[in-house]
């Protein structure tokens, strides 16, 4: 059966669509977006929701947004070094998104459709870009497929703008290497202070803070989302381990590794989390952990009054010690705000077996070294092509290229990990110690006091959350007396993301601390 339209009519419509797309792209890349504006708001702090509203009102295009960010990367990145490489296909992806929006394709209804995103360079992308963990040892390697989270982002219509820099090998080559440094990327810099951006997801935080991208993805084993977010005045969300897939991520420890968003607002982070959370059969842990995902997703918990009735714990020793009088005064002001917004504050709590946490770093290191060797070798063997096929190969590469990889920084983590022989007696004892510590420490504190979250300044709580696989979200809280930014972390038990979102969003809306750096 025919439609009553001639082939010429179809051709005319196709030509019209093509011409319209060319016109939109021309307008987007022309002078109209050299100083982009959204109802008086510069693109430099634009949110995901505002981007989608701008798209619907035909105020700008994905192509125009990509051109803006590429221009900012060209202008700022030579100094900040937050972006390792840009995607040569970013513009064509943007044109595709504009076409999908014009034709009202179902994918265009996704909250991340047409939104540029940076991916940390330890997360695989099966495209023209590299996946190297910042090291020349993996330059030119070919991954078998997109990482699980990248697959979800592409299905949602997000534009992969490029790869964010990082502390090389996720800061697990040597303790002597500066935070934010990698062989390929050089030294990343904090856009507020010009110094330590913190690692290992340094580039993801730098780029979002400096408005070189709309949103980004980072990874955390211990502090690598929370710390750079703290130092760069952005929101970092470290999900429950396994809530997001780690398949295709250059690993340290499947027991502790987590993939999460780094954004300028809590709502942006939640929109990203909604897309990347869920089952990936290449990461079996996600099957079990998917039970934590609420029906209807996470965005429903973005409530301005989310603090009301929440039970928040304050453990002053050790988290509030040594932060300085000026910072303490700011934190106390925020505590009062939490209380005024309806939260129930339980102050001066104590973590059971606190002394054991002081030595937990040793146990964590013992376990991580063995887990790193096992999981990295598995990752490298699965690559389609690679200059190195094992941790031993990576150690040898660094020795052969001491200037390229700045071997003066050392590679003691690599060497110590290579010396491990699997999960043996020492590793089992370390794992057992940490499991007991989780059960009798943080979990006992939370359950006994019926807490919805623990509130801590800066990222000092990261190890407790890390060794237990617990979630945490950090929200900008202000500036120390020396001008360095810091945030407040809200940490909870596994699967407590809905409550953490309500708390973090409620705090953010009550304070609105976030401000862009003066570049």
UniProtKB/TrEMBL annotation:
UniProt region (Disordered), positions on chain: 177-197
Domain Amidase intervals: 65-460
Highest taxon of source: Eukaryota
Protein name according to UniProt: Amidase domain-containing protein
Signal peptide: 1-30
Pfam families for this protein: Amidase
Entry-linked InterPro entries: Amidase_dom
Organism: Carya illinoinensis
Keyword annotations of the record: Signal
The keyword Transmembrane helix belongs to this UniProt entry's keyword annotation: no
């Amino acid at each position: 059966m025919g439609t009553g339209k001639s082939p010429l009519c179809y051709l005319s419509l196709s030509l019209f669509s093509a011409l319209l797309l060319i016109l939109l792209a021309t307008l987007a890349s022309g002078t109209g977006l050299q100083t982009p504006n959204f109802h008086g708001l510069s693109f430099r702090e634009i949110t995901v929701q505002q981007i989608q509203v701008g798209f619907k009102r035909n105020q700008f295009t994905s192509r125009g947004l990509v051109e803006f960010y590429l221009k900012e990367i060209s202008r700022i990145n030579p100094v900040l070094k937050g972006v390792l490489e840009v995607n040569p296909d970013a513009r064509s992806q943007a044109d595709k998104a504009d076409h999908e929006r014009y034709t009202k394709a179902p994918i265009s209804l996704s909250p991340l459709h047409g939104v540029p995103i940076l991916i940390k360079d330890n997360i695989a992308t099966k495209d023209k870009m590299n996946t190297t963990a910042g090291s020349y040892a993996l330059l030119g390697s070919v991954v078998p497929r997109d990482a699980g989270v990248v697959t979800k982002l592409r299905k949602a219509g997000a534009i992969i703008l490029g790869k964010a820099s990082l502390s090389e090998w996720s800061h697990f080559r040597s303790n002597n290497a500066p935070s934010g440094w990698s062989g390929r990327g050089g030294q990343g810099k904090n856009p507020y202070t010009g110094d330590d951006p913190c690692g290992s997801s340094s580039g993801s935080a730098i780029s979002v803070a400096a408005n070189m991208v709309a949103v980004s993805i980072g990874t955390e084993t211990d502090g690598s989302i929370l710390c750079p977010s703290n130092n760069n005045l952005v929101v970092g969300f470290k999900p429950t381990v396994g809530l997001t897939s780690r398949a295709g991520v250059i690993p340290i420890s499947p027991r502790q590794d987590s993939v999460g968003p780094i954004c300028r607002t809590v709502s942006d982070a939640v929109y990203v989390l909604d897309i990347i959370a869920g089952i990936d059969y290449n990461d079996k842990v996600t099957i079990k952990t998917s039970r934590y995902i609420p029906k209807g997703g996470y965005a429903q918990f973005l409530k301005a009054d989310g603090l009301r009735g929440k039970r928040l714990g304050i453990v002053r020793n050790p988290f509030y010690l040594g932060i300085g009088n000026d910072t303490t005064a700011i934190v106390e002001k925020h505590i009062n705000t939490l209380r005024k917004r309806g939260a129930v504050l339980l102050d001066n709590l104590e973590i059971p077996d606190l002394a054991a946490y002081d030595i937990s770093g040793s146990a964590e290191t013992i376990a991580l070294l063995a887990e790193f060797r096992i999981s990295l070798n598995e990752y490298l063997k699965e690559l389609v092509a690679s200059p190195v096929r094992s941790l031993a190969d990576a150690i040898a590469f660094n020795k052969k290229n001491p200037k390229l990889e700045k071997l003066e920084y050392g590679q003691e983590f690599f060497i110590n990990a290579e010396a491990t022989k699997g999960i043996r007696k020492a590793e089992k004892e370390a794992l057992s110690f940490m499991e007991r510590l989780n059960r009798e420490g943080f979990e006992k504190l939370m359950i006994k006091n019926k807490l919805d979250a623990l509130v801590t300044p800066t990222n000092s709580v990261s190890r407790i959350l890390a060794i237990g696989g617990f979630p945490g979200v950090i929200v900008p809280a202000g500036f120390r007396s020396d001008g360095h930014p810091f945030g407040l972390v809200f940490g909870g038990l596994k699967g407590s993301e809905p409550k953490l979102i309500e708390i973090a969003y409620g705090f953010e809306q009550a304070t609105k601390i976030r401000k862009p750096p003066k570049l």
